[in-house]
Amino acid sequence: MNIQSSGKKLFVLDTNVLMHDPTAIFRFQEHNIFIPMVVLEELDHAKKGLSDVSRNVRQVSRFLDELIRDANQQTINDGLPLSRIEHGLAVDADYDGRLYFQTKQLSHLLPDNLPGQIADNSILSIVLALGKEYPDVNVILVSKDINMRIKAAALQLNAEDYHNDQTIEDIDLLYNGTMALEADFWEENGGKMESWQENNHTYYKVSGPAVADWFPNQFVYMDDESGFEAIVKTCDGQSAVLQLARDFRTKHNSVWGVCAKNREQNFALNALLDPNIDFVTLLGTAGTGKTLLALAAGLSLTMEHKLYQEIIMTRETVPVGQDIGFLPGSEEEKMAPWMGALMDNLELLGSRSGNTEWEQGASQNVLMNRVKIRSLNFMRGRTFLNRFLIIDEAQNLTPKQMKTLITRAGPGTKIICIGNLGQIDTPYLTATSSGLTYVVDRFKAWANSAHITLRRGERSRLADFASDNL
């Protein structure tokens, strides 16, 4: 191998990085990449199957095959320029990074308690050997495995997580969909205000520096006795049009028997019931009412207003504890154990439709006929027309899975993504790299989407205390 230093870093990729993001080899810009032979062996073992990991591995193999095509032994030793192929990523012309394969035996003595036969330890041994053979090159191990990075740190090796999949650096910076207006907002920005009524809604047009950072369908409010709550309908950086939000806190304006219990829930119902908003994301801890609000709005729009033909609910089937194994029955029967939240909320919503046990049972049967449970495994290639699609536990989806689901929407379909970023059960996903975080950040400036972060738990005082203190 002929690895030139020239101020470039040499990133040694762990197998899990390529399994997680098949385009990772193109993400290091002008720096060089090294792939050990043991990584290629692990990729070969994981290429069979229908899972997303297997698909990613096969895509990596195609990239590598295209890079190495028509290359001779000398060009492989000198490093393959990553700009050899078109891979759909915008790459600057100055990004001249190269890909190096392990073409010879690299060995360096590991501590006796780290045998080289284990794949992770073989990679660590290669990183040690590269650092010794090329002392002028900054060799860095990139791995999604925390324990791998810990072992590397114990051996005084440079190791980093793969950060390119992170939407934002700090989850506290994630857009929350609401903004409290300053007490002097109207004095500062109300000089040229216009107001009018249209289709039973009140609108205000305001101008000033405060509106420069607003997003479409963001909810603004005054935290005082006025109780002012409005929705940003349009904004161009200099002026914005506000629409007064409807108040769903009273029984008179309840949605399928459900009333909003706090400001964020009221904002959520405004977004869920707006037919002009095609995509809604709801974040919140356990007990904030995400699933109940989404189902209540879906039933109201489907059963009362006839805007949608049916409600479809799906979720990622990631177990919290040990997997219970294969489940018998049809698709809906297999998904039923995963849909406890749906059943609990449907039982609550159905009980509000009648007083007697017979009426409640009849209502439950009617509701279940309009609510369908579908598995994520069979979503690829489908198109949903005039459906109210709820994606539960969306924090466990990768950005690629989220894209696959959202692109299933046909004309007249509304998609609701709900989840809790504090309950991610998928390996190698974090709050900053979750597909739910990804879509919240990417859709915040789109005029037909809305996002709300629910903050107050309304399940019970026991659930609230447990959420805050456990």
TrEMBL record:
<protein>
    <submittedName>
        <fullName>Phosphate starvation-inducible protein PhoH</fullName>
    </submittedName>
</protein>
<dbReference type="InterPro" id="IPR051451">
    <property type="entry name" value="PhoH2-like"/>
</dbReference>
<feature type="domain" description="PIN">
    <location>
        <begin position="9"/>
        <end position="150"/>
    </location>
</feature>
<keyword id="KW-0547">Nucleotide-binding</keyword>
<dbReference type="InterPro" id="IPR027417">
    <property type="entry name" value="P-loop_NTPase"/>
</dbReference>
<dbReference type="InterPro" id="IPR002716">
    <property type="entry name" value="PIN_dom"/>
</dbReference>
<dbReference type="GO" id="GO:0005524">
    <property type="term" value="F:ATP binding"/>
</dbReference>
<dbReference type="Pfam" id="PF13638">
    <property type="entry name" value="PIN_4"/>
</dbReference>
<dbReference type="GO" id="GO:0005829">
    <property type="term" value="C:cytosol"/>
</dbReference>
<dbReference type="Pfam" id="PF02562">
    <property type="entry name" value="PhoH"/>
</dbReference>
<keyword id="KW-0067">ATP-binding</keyword>
<comment type="similarity">
    <text>Belongs to the PhoH family.</text>
</comment>
<dbReference type="InterPro" id="IPR003714">
    <property type="entry name" value="PhoH"/>
</dbReference>
